[in-house]
Amino acid sequence: MNDRTDSAGIVDGRMTVAGGTFVQNPTKVLAFTAEGLVPVAGYDWRDGALHDAGRIEARARPDGARLARIDQPGPAQELALTIRSFAGESAPLLRLSLPAGAQGDLDDRLAAELFLPQPLFAGLRQDLTDGRAGSLSFAATTNLWLRDGAGDDEPPVFHLAPEIDGRKAQAHGRVQSISWRAGPSDTAGGPAFLAGQPDQAPEAEPSEDPVAEQLRRINWSLKQVLIVLAFLMLIIALK
Q1: CB 18 within 8 A of CB 177
Q2: Between β-strands 49-52 and 43-46, what pairing exists: parallel, antiparallel or unpaired?
Q3: What residue segments make up the domains of the chain, in order of their start?
Q4: Which residues make Cβ contacts (< 8 Å) with residue 144, sequence separation at least 6?
Q5: From residue 203, how far is each of 59, 200, 206 by CA, in Å?
Q6: Residue whose C-alpha is closest to residue 69's, from 94, 105, 33
Q7: Global pTM value
Q8: Number of H helices, E strands in the chain
Q9: Of 141, 74, 140, whose CA–CA distance to 109 is shortest?
Q10: Which residues, 6 or more positions from 235, have their beta carbon under 8 angstroms from its beta carbon?
Q11: pLDDT tens readout for residues 142-162
């Protein structure tokens, strides 16, 4: 099946295609969850210099929403996610893309890239290495398209624009929030958590308080005296 559509037109912020009319809503938030995070080390040689190309790869899926392509009936359930870093401390960015001329299921072709400022990326990578980042959640506002008149349909369906003039279909967004947590096996008490803990030496017996030791000895002596007196009283009673 060829997804290419050259009949789309945009007038006054509305995209009209054979399948209907679509609008953008910059306040509508699209959330994702990602699992299976894997750090990937690497370098690029650009402009005569070596650049760090380290990244994190994962599988992501829309959370409480669906992703689709205009003029394609089947929505995407899962997509490849690549997390990269950039210099600076501005807000994280999101990019969704489809290769030009792509055909087949949307799940096999749609890719997401999450760009994090270097300090945030370094923190995520360190937590991932330490077993404290088993899953990731983030939400972004995007320039994806919503069907005009859909209103508050649940779950909302966000659409990528159709391919026009052979150009790769892309959408962009600004990340509003991001968080991560340890996976089930990485929490306290789980195998991964315990494997990362240093071996603990057996607890040493607490040293006994000298005063308590003296009181214990006195108490023991008094008990012995009472026992002797009890025996003496018993002997007297028998006489």
Answers
A1: no
A2: antiparallel
A3: 9-194
A4: 24, 30, 67, 96, 158, 159, 160, 171, 173
A5: 44, 8, 9
A6: 105
A7: 0.69
A8: 3, 15
A9: 74
A10: none
A11: 999 998 887 776 788 898 887
